[in-house]
Structures are given as structure tokens and as C-alpha cells.
């Protein structure tokens, strides 16, 4: 009988559904029942649409049932503004499909929630996006007759983190939802990846809601339709990777290097050469965790990266939420 990978057992530190699928597929050697995915490539931008169709698929990869879109752009760290504009346009296009799937009409009221700690750069994605999105709800409230066609009521808030406010982000958002009655909530948060290459180069959109602190392994009360009463679209970017993941990736690269230069990797790598990826990762975690060395790591250029990707997301949101914003020139509408 084929042995399945239990993600809960190994506590794999990834918030990306795409990575969870890849890890679950590895021991199977093929597709997972209940998981439908399609990948396309457009001049350096790889887009994977993943649908977790049922409970079997959800259990297999450890992610909630729903739709996930992952936009991967390996060259995003190069600071190419032309590429950033193309990514923002692609993001806007796919985000609009989520609005359509949830039947969010063009006049629906939107609340954007930027989760995270603005004092910690890798966790500041949400607050930075909130700074750059177009907020219009106050115009609809105070001077509705002067609002030009093609805009909708958008409000935005960065509620901070539990350690600063003493209040769960979900409780703050619940209170705002009860008072302002948005039709949909868009939650943005930093995530953790198991792949160093995907850090600050990947955007995930999901209609399954979000859990504050997921990027650092916290499991607390989340932002979902069941909890706050309105649909929640989650946007996440991996900004950190665990030290155990880096060590494991290094062992994989060493193994590949030795294979290319030696016919006997068993002699060099020993038992490591015979281990499956999940087994090797668990061994690394068991060694590092008791020592307190399973650190969260982020690139030294994180200040620049986080600003760039926050602008991309804000630009895409502005274009997808307001018809008056030119989808083909989204970058012009951030400030």
C-alpha cells in the first residue's frame, strides 16, 4: 500500500498551497485525487491555478477547500519596473476572477485589511499595501453625488498585531465589519515558504480566508467567512523561510552536486542519500529545534523587496476594484 505524506505529522513550514501540493505529490509520483491544477507561463511569469475540490484533497495537502492562484516571478528581485507592471496587470486579472467567482458586483463595498507588524520589515507587507491602495468609502459617505463613475467604496485598515494592540486582528476586523457592512474583505499577510527561490517572488491569492501569524507558525483565530460573516479573499507573499528549510535545501544541492561528480554518493552522503525529502527535513528540524536554532530568515534586501511587491499588489487591487483605473497601466495609480 502506498504511503501518503502526512503534512501535519511533519509540520512542514509552508503557507503556499502549491508547495503543499508538490510535497504531497512527491511520494505518490503523480496527481492527488481531489486536486485540480493548471500551470501557464507568460514571459517569465508562471501562474498556477489550483482547486482543492473535496475533503480528500484538503487532507492530502493540508489546505482548506477552495481556489488558489500562485503567481511566480523569479526575476522579480531584479527591480525591473517593466516586469513589475506586467505582474501587477496579471495579478489584477486573476484577482478579478475571484471577485466574479464570489459574485461580488461592481458596486460592492470592500474592506482591505493589511495584517502584520509595520515595525518588522518582513511582516510589514499588509500595512504597506494599505498605504498604497485607493480608499474611497469616505467620499461615498460624505459626497456621493460627486464620485465619478467607475469607482466603488473601498476602506482599508492595518489593525496591527496582538503583541502591540493586545487584541486579536480577527476581533478588530469583526468590529469593523459589523459597523461598516462591507460585502467582501481582502486580507493581506506575509507568509512562509519552504523554497528560498519563492521568497519575495511569489504571490498567492485564495478564497479560503487567512490566519494572522501563519507566516511564523502561529495558529490563532483566523479571518474566514464563517468567522466574520462575509467572503474573505486572502493575498499572501512569502517573505521568510525557516533555517531548517535552508539546511535541507543545502543538503539537496550537495547531493545533486556529488551525483554530478561522483558515481558513489552513498559513500559521501551516507544515510542522508537514502532519505526522502520529508524524512530529511524532519531530521534537520529535530536537530535544530531543541537548540532554538530553527530561525526565520529573510534576504538582506528585504526593505526594497517588500516595497516593490507591496506596490505591485496595491496597483493590482486598484485596477481590479475600480473600473476607472486602467488595467494596462496599473502602476500609475499607486502613490
TrEMBL record:
E.C. number(s) listed in UniProt: 3.4.24.78
Top-rank EC class of the record's enzyme: hydrolase
InterPro entries found in the cross-reference section: Pept_HybD-like_dom_sf, Peptidase_A25
GO molecular function: metalloendopeptidase activity
Any one biological process term the GO annotation gives: proteolysis
Processing after translation: Autoproteolytically processed. The inactive tetrameric zymogen termed p46 autoprocesses to a smaller form termed p41, which is active only during spore germination.
Propeptide residue span(s): 1-15
Pfam families per record: Peptidase_A25
Keywords tagged on the record: Hydrolase, Protease, Zymogen
UniProt catalytic activity: Endopeptidase action with P4 Glu or Asp, P1 preferably Glu > Asp, P1' hydrophobic and P2' Ala
Signal peptide, first to last residue: none
Keyword Hydrolase among record annotations: yes
Subunit structure: Homotetramer.
Entry function: Initiates the rapid degradation of small, acid-soluble proteins during spore germination.
Family: Belongs to the peptidase A25 family.
Protein name (database record): Germination protease
Native organism: Paenibacillus prosopidis
Amino acid at each position: 500500500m502506498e504511503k501518503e505524506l502526512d503534512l501535519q505529522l511533519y509540520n512542514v513550514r509552508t503557507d503556499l498551497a502549491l508547495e503543499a501540493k508538490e510535497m504531497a505529490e512527491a511520494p505518490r509520483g503523480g496527481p492527488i485525487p481531489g486536486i485540480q491544477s493548471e500551470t501557464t507561463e507568460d514571459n517569465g511569469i508562471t501562474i498556477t491555478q489550483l482547486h482543492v475540490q473535496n475533503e480528500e484533497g484538503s487532507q492530502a495537502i493540508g489546505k482548506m477547500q477552495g481556489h488558489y492562484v500562485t503567481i511566480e516571478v523569479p526575476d522579480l528581485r531584479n527591480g525591473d519596473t517593466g516586469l513589475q507592471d506586467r505582474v501587477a496587470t496579471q495579478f489584477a486579472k486573476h484577482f478579478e476572477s475571484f471577485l466574479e467567482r464570489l459574485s461580488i458586483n461592481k458596486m460592492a463595498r470592500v474592506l482591505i485589511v493589511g495584517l502584520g507588524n509595520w515595525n518588522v520589515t518582513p511582516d510589514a507587507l499588509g500595512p504597506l499595501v494599505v498605504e498604497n491602495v485607493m480608499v474611497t468609502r469616505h467620499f461615498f459617505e460624505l459626497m456621493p453625488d460627486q464620485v465619478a463613475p467607475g469607482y466603488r467604496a473601498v476602506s482599508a485598515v492595518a489593525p496591527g498585531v496582538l503583541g502591540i494592540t493586545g487584541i486579536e486582528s480577527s476581533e478588530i476586523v469583526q468590529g469593523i465589519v459589523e459597523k461598516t457592512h462591507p460585502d467582501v474583505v481582502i486580507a493581506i499577510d506575509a507568509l512562509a515558504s519552504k523554497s528560498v527561490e519563492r521568497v519575495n517572488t511569489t504571490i498567492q491569492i485564495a478564497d479560503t480566508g487567512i490566519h494572522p501569524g501563519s507566516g511564523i507558525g502561529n495558529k490563532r483565530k483566523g479571518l474566514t467567512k464563517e468567522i466574520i460573516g462575509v467572503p474573505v479573499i486572502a493575498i499572501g507573499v512569502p517573505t521568510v523561510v525557516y533555517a531548517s528549510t535552508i539546511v535541507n535545501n543545502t543538503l539537496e544541492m550537495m547531493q545533486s552536486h556529488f551525483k554530478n561528480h561522483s558515481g558513489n554518493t552513498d559513500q559521501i552522503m551516507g544515510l542522508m542519500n537514502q532519505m526522502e525529502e520529508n524524512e530529511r527535513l524532519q531530521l534537520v528540524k529535530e536537530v535544530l529545534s531543541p537548540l532554538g536554532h530553527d530561525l526565520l530568515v529573510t534576504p538582506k534586501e528585504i526593505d526594497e523587496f517588500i516595497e516593490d511587491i507591496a506596490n505591485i499588489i496595491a496597483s493590482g487591487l486598484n485596477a481590479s476594484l475600480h473600473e476607472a483605473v486602467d488595467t494596462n497601466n496599473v502602476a500609475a495609480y499607486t502613490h
